């Protein structure tokens, strides 16, 4: 398989896994446990029946090479789950609260800034607001939604007032919501 085709195939499989392991396992009749884990053998079988044939080697390769480390295998390699980003309320990743860095970043599109100024950051369909430790990642995230804007989150100040933060297996920081008073908005140059 050519490199470009290989990359597109991996991206297609990654999107499929995101759908199944984050949002809609019932699409292929897959069951997730309370911590979001799915049985690998069952995933392979049901994906094939659904028209997305996967091999264990392909699955391992997609997990290992995913640029955002969206997925993780259990220590014994028999189960797989999404590292974060679930919309399923029944999934609890069992992450322990952690002390965040002083600041974290959130990438969004410029068209959402007015709403965020009024209501802060809310998780929308997901369970948590996603934050990063670096500006480059936030820019990449914001670019997916339009003209990117990077918001600086005063995470230490939030934490000091009792807001909980979690760090997913892939390094993404999660919190329930970010009130607007903890967000530093970029200065408009318009």
From TrEMBL:
<comment type="function">
    <text>Removes the 2'-phosphate from RNA via an intermediate in which the phosphate is ADP-ribosylated by NAD followed by a presumed transesterification to release the RNA and generate ADP-ribose 1''-2''-cyclic phosphate (APPR&gt;P). May function as an ADP-ribosylase.</text>
</comment>
<keyword id="KW-0808">Transferase</keyword>
<dbReference type="GO" id="GO:0000215">
    <property type="term" value="F:tRNA 2'-phosphotransferase activity"/>
</dbReference>
<dbReference type="InterPro" id="IPR022928">
    <property type="entry name" value="RNA_2'-PTrans_KptA"/>
</dbReference>
<dbReference type="Pfam" id="PF01885">
    <property type="entry name" value="PTS_2-RNA"/>
</dbReference>
<dbReference type="InterPro" id="IPR042080">
    <property type="entry name" value="RNA_2'-PTrans_N"/>
</dbReference>
<protein>
    <recommendedName>
        <fullName>Probable RNA 2'-phosphotransferase</fullName>
        <ecNumber>2.7.1.-</ecNumber>
    </recommendedName>
</protein>
<keyword id="KW-0520">NAD</keyword>
<dbReference type="InterPro" id="IPR042081">
    <property type="entry name" value="RNA_2'-PTrans_C"/>
</dbReference>
<dbReference type="InterPro" id="IPR002745">
    <property type="entry name" value="Ptrans_KptA/Tpt1"/>
</dbReference>
<dbReference type="GO" id="GO:0003950">
    <property type="term" value="F:NAD+ poly-ADP-ribosyltransferase activity"/>
</dbReference>
<comment type="similarity">
    <text>Belongs to the KptA/TPT1 family.</text>
</comment>
<dbReference type="GO" id="GO:0006388">
    <property type="term" value="P:tRNA splicing, via endonucleolytic cleavage and ligation"/>
</dbReference>
């Amino acid at each position: 398989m050519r490199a470009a085709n290989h990359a597109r195939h991996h991206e297609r499989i990654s999107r499929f896994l995101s759908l199944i392991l984050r949002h809609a396992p019932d699409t292929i009749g897959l069951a997730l446990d309370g911590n979001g884990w799915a049985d690998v053998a069952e995933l392979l079988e049901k994906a094939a029946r659904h028209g997305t044939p996967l091999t264990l080697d392909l699955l391992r390769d997609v997990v290992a090479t995913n640029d955002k480390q969206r997925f993780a295998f259990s220590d014994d390699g028999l189960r797989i789950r999404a590292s974060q980003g679930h919309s399923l309320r029944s999934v609890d990743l069992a992450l322990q609260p952690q002390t965040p860095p002083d600041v974290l970043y959130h990438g969004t599109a410029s068209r959402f800034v007015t709403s965020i100024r009024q209501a802060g950051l809310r998780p929308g369909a997901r369970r948590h607001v996603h934050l990063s430790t670096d500006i480059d990642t936030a820019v990449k995230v914001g670019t997916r939604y339009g003209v990117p804007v990077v918001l600086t989150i005063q995470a230490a100040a939030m934490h000091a007032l009792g807001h909980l933060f979690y760090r997913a297996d892939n390094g993404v920081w999660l919190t329930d919501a970010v009130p607007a008073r903890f967000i530093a908005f970029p200065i408009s140059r318009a």
